[in-house]
Amino acid sequence: MACWQVTEVEVNGAPAPKGHPANGHVERIEQCGDRIVITGGGVIHDMRCDGLVDHGVHDVAARDFKTQITVVATYENGVHTLRPVGLRPRLIGLVRGGRLEVTRRRDGADMLWSYVGFHRPAATDR
Asked: How buried is 70 (Cβ within 10 angstroms: 0-12 exposed, 13-18 middle, 19+ buried)?
């Protein structure tokens, strides 16, 4: 288990303004095998990272606590990758290879998180 706090935010490769909503965001991440639980922003996302819709996230979005979300989770070359199901990437997120993706990966002592159009380097707060 580790807690992570956003230390800097980049949008399109440039530093985001100080008031960006991601600044200061904190997540707690617990992992055992292919199961991962991410708690932050008022939600708890509990999933298996096996690429199956049935084992992914079935929850609500943190932005309003009402919007239902379904997300497929995988580990790909050491990167935790989330792909929302049924969302239009041009409206809400970061598109890679034609797919909306949220990624988290370790880079030394830091975690790099790409999410909804911006990049969040996060430092551990253990």
From this structure: middle
Rounded distance between C-alpha atoms, residue 26 and residue 122, angstroms: 9
CB of 112 closer than 8 Å to CB of 102? no
Tokens matching residue 37: 């639980």
- For residue range 24-54, what is the model confidence (pLDDT) as tens digits? 888 899 999 999 999 988 999 999 999 999 9
Looking at residue 82, its amino acid is L
Q: Which residue has the tokens 């551990």?
A: 124
57 in the Ramachandran plot: left (φ > 0), alpha (ψ -120 to 50) or beta?
A: beta
Q: Which two tokens mark 61?
A: 């979005």
